[in-house]
Write a structure and sequence with these properties.
mainly beta; Porin; 2 domains; eight-stranded antiparallel β-barrel; 69% strand
């Protein structure tokens, strides 16, 4: 049986969500990383999207603690989980006319909720597993929701030393400590129209130890109705090495605008914005890596945005 303290899981789920009060069903999906820390307990981080309800486009991140009926391994497992959920909700608002004549009929509401979950999982001997999950979201205010989802995931065991002869860890003598990434992607405004444009970024990362890293990133995104066209981000990352080549992580930080857009409102916030992110990196050689990052920029002036990036990095 696999060591509970070394088994990490990645899963992707999707399904149907029902709000209360009932304004019609919508889709929902989530990406989750779970880490066992005892035979019957695990902790997880999930990025959850709650689809498009009437006057509500809500998503966010949650941390949960799970109880399992038995240790992970081939066969059937029942689970119960609960934890805090921080959400971002694009809702209706009175129209505001910007200096460029653009009308804004929405606002970005932020809040907290309790995410309670029950799941039935079937683990295959190959490491893959199937899951059926029921999620209940109880916010501090606004719409309550219940969702039924199905999904698949993969259980990464503790055989980290057998995947490759070139370990890429800060604990390995002579291992690369720095990484420079060139990335492209898309920046999307969190409005009802989800306007988007091309984004380009350059990032420098440094390993603090095997499980933590820090980064500085400069991003340019034009032709989008944001109040910035470029900005710099400083982030701290918690990372989990799932294999010798694959690493996943979550990060927090700040985003500082460096080039104000002509769409900026006179009273737009000019201070640093909050930044939450997830990342995955796959090493194609000891020096070269493919990296994907999904950033959520959270503001105080209804200018929240998502920045999705993918690119190639060099480690040294």
């Amino acid at each position: 049986m696999m060591s509970a303290t070394r088994a990490g899981e990645l899963d992707l789920t999707g399904g149907i969500e029902q709000p209360t009060p009932n304004t019609g069903r919508t889709y929902t999906w989530g990406m989750e990383y779970r880490q066992s820390f005892a035979e019957h307990f695990a902790a997880s981080f999930i990025w959850l999207n709650e689809g498009h309800l009437i006057d509500h486009h809500r998503d966010g991140q949650a941390i949960q603690v799970w109880w399992r009926t038995r240790p992970i391994g081939p066969g059937l497992v029942f689970e119960l989980g609960v934890g805090p959920y921080h959400y971002y909700d694009t809702t209706s608002a009175v129209n505001i006319v910007t200096p460029t004549g653009t009308e804004i009929g929405y606002q970005n509401a932020h809040g907290w909720a309790v995410l309670s979950s029950a799941a039935i999982d079937w683990y295959f001997k190959s490491g893959w597993f199937a899951t059926t999950r029921l999620n209940d979201i109880e916010p501090d205010s606004g719409v309550r929701s219940t969702a039924l989802t199905l999904g698949v995931g993969y259980l990464f065991g503790d055989g980290l030393g057998s995947a490759s002869h070139w370990a890429d860890s800060s604990n390995t003598p002579g291992a690369p400590r720095y990484e420079v990434d060139g990335m492209v992607g898309r920046a999307v405004l969190n409005s009802f129209r989800s306007e988007g444009a091309l984004a380009k970024a350059v990032s420098v990362r440094t390993n603090i130890n095997r499980y933590f890293a820090a980064s500085l990133t400069y991003t340019v995104a034009q032709n989008i109705p944001l109040d910035w066209r470029s900005g710099a981000a400083a982030q701290l990352w918690a990372e989990a090495p799932l294999t010798q080549r694959l690493t996943v992580g979550a990060g927090v930080g700040v985003f500082v605008t460096g080039d104000r857009s002509r769409n900026a409102q006179p009273d737009a916030a000019t201070g640093p914005a909050g930044l939450l992110a997830i990342t995955a990196a796959y090493a194609i050689s000891p020096k070269w890596v493919v990296r994907a990052i999904w950033n959520r920029v959270t503001t105080r002036d209804d200018d929240d945005s998502d920045i999705g990036l993918v690119g190639v990095g060099y480690r040294f």
